[in-house]
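Risk mitigation, structural track. In case the binding assays with FE2/S2 (inorganic) cluster fail to produce interpretable data, a predicted complex structure has been prepared as a fallback.
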Amino acid sequence: MSAQITLQPSGHVFHADDGESVLEAALREGYRLPYGCRNGTCGSCKGRVASGVVDHGKSQDTALPAAERAQGMALFCQAQPRSDLVIECREIGTVKDIPVKTLPCRVQSLELVAPDVMRIRLRLPAAERLQFLAGQYIDILLRDGTRRSLSLANPPHDDGLLELHLRNYGGPFSIHVFTQMKEKDILRFEGPLGTFYLRENSDKPVVLVAGGTGFAPIKAIIEHAIHHNIKRPLLLYRGARRAADLYLNELPLTWQREHGITYIPVLSDVTTEDAWNGRSGLVHEAVIADLPDLSGHDVYACGAPAMIDAARRDFLTRCGLPETAFYADAFTPAVP
Ligand code: FES
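Fallback model:
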């Protein structure tokens, strides 16, 4: 039997199925409550049960002392409703509500998905989870004090492993990953970072423009939108040099087939070897050719700075896109 849960002060209402914690139910229905470990030890998900009864599950005394429990506090990652509930808990509205952490992680797998693109999956310590918004990035902290920013390619609901897509540009971190890194290596990172995430308070159609490994955060955003059944039309324009650079191409084809997402791959350096009969040229020019009026759209673009700059300039000046409807994440070089 499902329980109705009312969130205060927002008044949002959601439902928990049997065996579900309050946090699991809230996240499933798209309400962002704060969390950290998701196993009852860190206290990040603590809030008050204003009315109703919960089973506290495996809440640890260190995170939820008996005195707090007696006052009606609960760890929502553990608490399961035993009746309808009214709970008091802050909701994450923007990235500034999400704590930025520095964490160790282990390389779980390395997969070459294009001649020069590595898909890296990272495992966090058992007692840690990373809360983030789809589209944000992390900084890998390197031993020499530099950082390498990489977008998270997995959506927040699928956070068992963190997924990164790294193109080999010949920098020290790329060379290390492509020549020496192996499974079980330990890395440290800081995150989540950045303000590139889907604004869900709009109902405009969304144009997503991904260049190269800019596909990573766009993948996270699309998988987040599918998981939460977001009904806005999604149009993905994906730029690459050659057909071989369209890594993980079965994914957008599946999104198109099963979820009605429009997928337009565009190659910039196509040759006869590619046997390509799709679109060619600059990816943002393909958007302009199809959608000369962008005044009613939101645009999310991720890729090389030159692509972002050209897209911003031309969408604003030629297509009537309001500046406030253009969201972008440009690749940046490693910083000390
Ligand atoms: S998320 Fe850490 S105790 Fe609930």
